[in-house]
């Protein structure tokens, strides 16, 4: 299970300060959401047992993100945001949290866009029995941050390339086109086609429930599920984001 599992040293830095990986996710998770995300972090801890791996759930609606992060992370932590696109909470809240922590704490990049995420999305869609005539819509959470919105469109482009068919983006909140509008547009352009929704969402929760009720014919599972081990692609991705943090910043103990 997630928790302190021993101190690990960067491979190329003998005697370096122990590294801690703190996975951070925001929102008010349901029991299913929490279990699904914990399975990902458990997978990371199992893959790298020498690391001290932990997780922090930050309810961004009711707490100061920076203060919550400062309370959860140590000065030598690498914070890996478990978000698919980096909006305000990553670029502002978590960055301010690093300032409050001080020391050598560092922030890794967000998870997406990445072809490993696309591989899992494609597998979720294939599990529905995707037909050649189906129209695919990628349901994304949405953000007020234009860069995060562009990242969602980039994921849709990569998914379209992998599937060999167009993929339309629909946002659940904060950005346009909204998911119900995107589905309605497809029905007008392709009458009679089955509309299949791919969930560009990390885990079950309020956004997934909204996507399921947006008017599509079928919806794929989110990337993580409470009843199964996290896909190996996502475990690898978290570890890669962790490893990409500049090890030269770590000082010998």
Automatic annotation (TrEMBL):
Annotated SUPFAM superfamilies: Chelatase
TM ranges: none
GO molecular function, one term: lyase activity
This protein's UniProt keywords: Lyase, Metal-binding
Tagged with keyword Cell wall biogenesis/degradation: no
Any single Pfam family the record assigns to this protein: CbiX
Protein name: Sirohydrochlorin ferrochelatase
Source species of the chain: Agromyces ramosus
């Amino acid at each position: 299970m997630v928790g302190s599992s021993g101190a690990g040293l960067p491979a190329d830095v003998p005697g370096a300060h122990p590294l801690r990986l703190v996975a951070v996710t925001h929102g008010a998770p349901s029991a299913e959401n929490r279990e699904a995300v914990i399975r990902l972090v458990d997978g990371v801890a199992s893959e790298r047992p020498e690391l001290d791996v932990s997780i922090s759930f930050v309810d961004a609606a009711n707490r100061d993100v920076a203060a919550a992060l400062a309370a959860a992370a140590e000065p030598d932590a690498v914070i890996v945001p478990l978000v698919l696109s980096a909006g305000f909470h990553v670029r502002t809240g978590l960055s301010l949290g690093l300032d409050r922590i001080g020391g050598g704490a560092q922030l890794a990049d967000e998870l997406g866009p990445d072809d490993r995420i696309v591989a899992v999305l494609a597998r979720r869609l294939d599990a529905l029995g995707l037909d050649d005539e189906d129209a695919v819509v990628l349901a994304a959470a949405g953000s007020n941050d234009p860069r995060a919105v562009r990242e969602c469109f980039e994921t849709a482009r990569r998914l379209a390339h992998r599937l060999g068919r167009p993929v339309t983006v629909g946002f659940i909140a904060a950005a346009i086109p909204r998911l119900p509008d995107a589905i309605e547009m497809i029905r007008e352009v392709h009458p009679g086609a089955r509309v299949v929704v791919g969930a560009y969402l990390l885990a079950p929760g309020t956004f997934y429930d909204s996507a399921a009720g947006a008017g599509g014919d079928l919806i794929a599972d989110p990337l993580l599920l409470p009843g199964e081990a996290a896909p190996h692609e996502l475990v690898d991705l978290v570890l890669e984001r962790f490893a990409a943090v500049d090890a030269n910043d770590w000082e010998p103990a």
